[in-house]
Amino acid sequence: MLSESIIDKRLISASWWIVVFIAVEFFDYTFVNNAVLNVLNILLCDAIAFCVYYKYCNTSYERRQGSMLLSFIFVLWLFSIFAGMAHGGDSILRPYVLMMMLSNAFIAYTIIKKTLSVYPFKIAFYAISAYFLYLIIIKEVGVFEMFPRSGSGWAGSVVLSLSIIIQYIELRNYGRINLLTVLLAFVVCIVAYSRSSLVCGAVYFLVTLFFATRRFKNFFVRNIIFIVVFALIAYQIINNWDAITTLDIYEKFNRKGLDNDGRQDIWSAYLGNMNFPNIILGIPIDTAHPLKGFTNPHNSLIQLHSQIGMFAFVFFYYILKGGVRLMMKNIYLALLLIILIVRGSTDIVFFFNYFDFVIYVLIFEQELKRRQVTDISLSIF
After folding, report:
1. What phi and psi values does residue 162 have, to the nearest 5 degrees?
2. Spatial CA neighbour of 379 closest among 175, 232, 122
3. DSSP SS3 for 373
4. What are phi and psi of 94, to 5 degrees?
5. Is the C-alpha dihedral spanning 84, 157, 347, 313 positive or negative?
6. Among 135, 156, 137, CA closest to 146
7. Among the listed residues 357, 319, 320, the one whose alpha carbon sits nearest the alpha carbon of residue 169
8. pLDDT tens sequence across 179-221
C-alpha cells in the first residue's frame, strides 16, 4: 500500500486540477441556467480535462489511447448527424454533449492511469455534502428550488458518485474503505427527496459496511459489529421517529411507495418503437415519449441508445465486460458499479452528463489493467 507522502507531487497537483474540474461541473449544473454560460463552462471543463491529460498522461502509449478516444468521439458525432438527418432533424447528439463526454473521458483516463491523492477529492465531497445539508436541513430549501434544471435525484447522485470515486482511490492507493464518506452520502440521500437515491444509498452503506468488517477474520466479531451498528441505527430511528415522519422523502414513500411514476410507460413506448432502422439509428425521445414533445426517458441506458443508436451496444458490451471482470478481481468495486447502473436506470444520471467520469472509471478500470487490491482495511476519515 502507498503512503500519501510518497505520491508524486505532480500527481497531487493533478488531483487538485481534477477537483477544479468537479467544481466547475457542479457550479454549472447547480447555479447556471443560461445556455451560453453552460457552453462556456463545458468548454472550460474541456480545457481543464485536456490540460490534465496532456500534462500527466504523456507516454507514447497514453497519447495513442487519447488519439483513439478522440477518433471514437468524432465518429459518434458524424454518426449522430447522419441519424438525425434520417429522422428528419439535425444531429441527435449535440456538440456540447460530445464536449462533456470528451472531458469526462479524459478525467476518467487520468484517474485510472495515475496514482492520485485522495485528499482533494475528500475536500470537494465534504464541501458539496455540507452545502446540500445546509440548504435542505438548515435553510429548508426544496431540491427543486436548488436544481431547476433537474429532478430531485441530483443531490443524491452527486454525493454517491463522489463518494464512490473516493472509495476507488482509497482502495487502489491504500487498500482501505472510507466509512465517513459513505455514511455522509447516505444521509444526503435520505434528505434529498429521491426514492431511488435513498435505496441506492442504503445499499451502498450496507455493502460497504459488510466489506469493511471482512477484515475481522473472526466470524463472531463480525456479527457483533453488525449487531451493534444495526442496534444503533434502530435506536436512532425509533428515538427520532417523529422527526423522520416530517421528512419529504417519508411523505413521498408513504404516498407512492416504489411506484415508478409512469416510467414503465415511457420505457415501454420507447422499446415499442424498436425496429431494425431504429435499433441502428436510435430514436429521438420526443417522438417515442408517450407525452409527445417530452425529452426525458428517466433511464440513462435508453437515453444512451437514443443519442448514439447502435454504438450504445459498444457501451453495453463494456459495461457488462467491465462488471464481470471487476467481479472476478474486486467484488466491492463491481457492486459499486451495479449501484450506479441501478441509479441510472430510473433517471438520466449518466451517458452523457456531469460526473460521468465516475462510471467510466469503474467500467474501464479492468480494461486499462490497474493494480488490484485484495485486502481491504477500514478508514473512518
Report:
1. -70, -40
2. 175
3. coil
4. -65, 150
5. positive
6. 135
7. 357
8. 889 989 988 888 776 777 788 888 898 888 888 776 656 566 6
Which helix (H) or strand (E) element contains residue 177?
Answer: strand 176-178
User: Pairing relation of β-strands 176-178 and 377-379?
Assistant: parallel
Q: What is the pLDDT of residue 367?
A: 74
Count the Cβ atoms, other than its own, within 10 Å of residue 47.
13
Please write the tens of the pLDDT for every residue from 215-228: 656 566 666 766 76
Q: How many residues does the chain have?
A: 381
All cell numbers assigned to 270: 420507447
3-state secondary structure of 114: coil
Cell digits of residue 72: 471514437
Integer CA distances (angstroms), 65 to 49, 167, 360, 371, in order: 15, 26, 15, 19
CA torsion 147-151-157-158 (nearest 10°) is -10
Q: Residue 117 to residues 6, 170, 361, 362: CA-CA distances in angstroms?
A: 10, 9, 16, 18
Distance CA 349, CA 351 (A): 7
Which of 199, 207, 133 shows the shortest CA–CA distance to 164? 207
Cell of 243: 422527526
Radius of gyration of the chain, Cα coordinates, nearest whole angstrom:
21
Please name the helix (run of DSSP H) or strand (run of DSSP E) that holds residue 21, with its range, or none: helix 9-31
Name 379's bridge partners. Answer: 178
